[in-house]
Amino acid sequence: MNTGASNVVTPPESIDLSLMDPIFAKYGGNRGALIPILQNAQELYNYLPKEVLQLIARQLGLSVSKVYGVATFYAQFYLERRGRHILKLCDGTACHVKGTPVLMTALEDRYHIGPGETTPDGELTVEIVYCLGSCALAPVAVLNGEVVGRLRQEMLLRTVKKQIDSA
Questions:
Q1: Phi, psi (rounded to 5 degrees) for 88
Q2: Do 98 and 142 belong together in one domain?
Q3: In terms of residue numbers, what domain contains 147?
Q4: Are 106 and 139 in a shared domain?
Q5: What confidence score (pLDDT) does residue 82 get?
Q6: What does the pLDDT look like over 129-140, one tens digit per residue?
């Protein structure tokens, strides 16, 4: 767990571009497969490193700006390294009224990161979302794909710590 005050993400190790070979073998040079290729690449690396975008452009005979444009158009793609654990904290109206700001403050105090940031050790990324469709469970979050509702500060911090410690 990060206990330092820095919110600077450490640079990733070198990117192994050979991991992309099976993806290119599957889709060949089909330019129409750009989005599935980006999705597969993101699944491999947990984000889309610049080197991977450049490789995809070369393999498909597209400009890097075209590939970058598609990757930045869709909210599903991330160009920054993300944590091994993703916490999506709802700040829709019901969640906000029932305590999301207090929950975010607790996360900032414990992990020294704000919304959209990743801990320096690469363990946790916190994202604010504006509706998870679970207003009856407010305040609610999704941690690693699992919905956690009726959150209070200590419960949230315990749940996040448990996920980080178990990985």
A1: -105, 110
A2: yes
A3: 85-166
A4: yes
A5: 93
A6: 999 999 999 999
